[in-house]
Specification:
Shape: globular
Distance between the termini: 55 Å
Strand content: 15-25%
Strand order of the largest sheet: 3-2-4-1-5
Largest sheet: 5 strands, parallel
Length: 235
């Protein structure tokens, strides 16, 4: 069988595609991806066999390509970084193709943390963007807030079943109903990061009640207290 790559193409702007990812896409003959992700790399798709997939037809497409791949190279691009919020898909690709090489990309969580000036190494990163239960992740969110961490969070949109949504408004109401003073928690919401449509919101968690944001959004709970090296005691 030929080579199969799962690659991260960044949050949306072609400027955030790494050279390593560009090289493997240009080298490939087949590309399989979602519409938004393919749009990010459209300048690299000339003379390639391109499959645009949805959640409904991705399995059929992967199986079809696996049977006819031969010695060709196939790339499956993911928005952001392959290693974040995509494990269920990557695990399935490995089951189908056998060996899949992963090339990381720049994630929206990295860009959001940078824009909010919140360091990742002193924060918790939580994704609700999974198809399995998120009840444990909700508890993780509460604990992180109580422990004083900043949090970079990817909410969960669910267009086909709004009752499963856990977007910004639902998150604000959930935390209020669990005893948090949402009038004292500072938040950022970034939409369409790195693209021409990028927007940002800065305010309090209570202000998110009833507000709608794009599926392509990231939240930052800002509880960071700056501490420069000058103030640190060195052992």
């Amino acid at each position: 069988m030929g080579e199969v790559y799962a690659v991260g193409v960044g949050p949306g702007s072609p400027r955030y595609i790494t050279d390593a990812v560009k090289e493997v896409i240009l080298y490939s003959e087949i590309v399989i991806g979602y519409k938004y992700t393919l749009t990010t790399i459209e300048r690299l798709l000339a003379n390639k066999q391109v499959y645009e997939i949805t959640m409904q037809n991705q399995e059929k497409t992967y199986q079809k390509v696996a049977k006819t791949l031969g010695d060709k190279t196939c790339v499956i691009p993911f928005t952001g970084d392959v290693n974040f919020s995509e494990s269920e898909v990557v695990d399935r690709l490995i089951e189908i193709f056998g060996k899949v090489e992963i090339i990381p990309g720049i994630s929206s969580i990295q860009v959001a943390a940078a824009k909010a000036c919140v360091p990742l190494d002193k924060s918790k990163v939580i994704t609700m963007h999974v198809t399995t239960s998120i009840e444990e992740k909700k508890i993780e969110l509460q604990k992180a807030l109580l422990d004083g961490y900043s949090i970079i969070l990817v909410p969960r949109p669910w267009a086909s079943d709004p009752s499963k949504n856990f977007m910004q408004s639902e998150i604000a109401l959930y935390l209020k109903n669990h005893g948090f003073d949402t009038a004292k928690i500072k938040v950022h919401v970034f939409e369409f990061l790195t693209t021409e449509k990028e927007t940002s919101f800065v305010g309090l968690l209570k202000d998110l009640e009833g507000r709608k944001f794009s599926d392509l959004s990231v939240m930052v709970f800002d509880q960071y207290k700056p501490e420069s090296y000058v103030n640190l005691k060195m052992n």
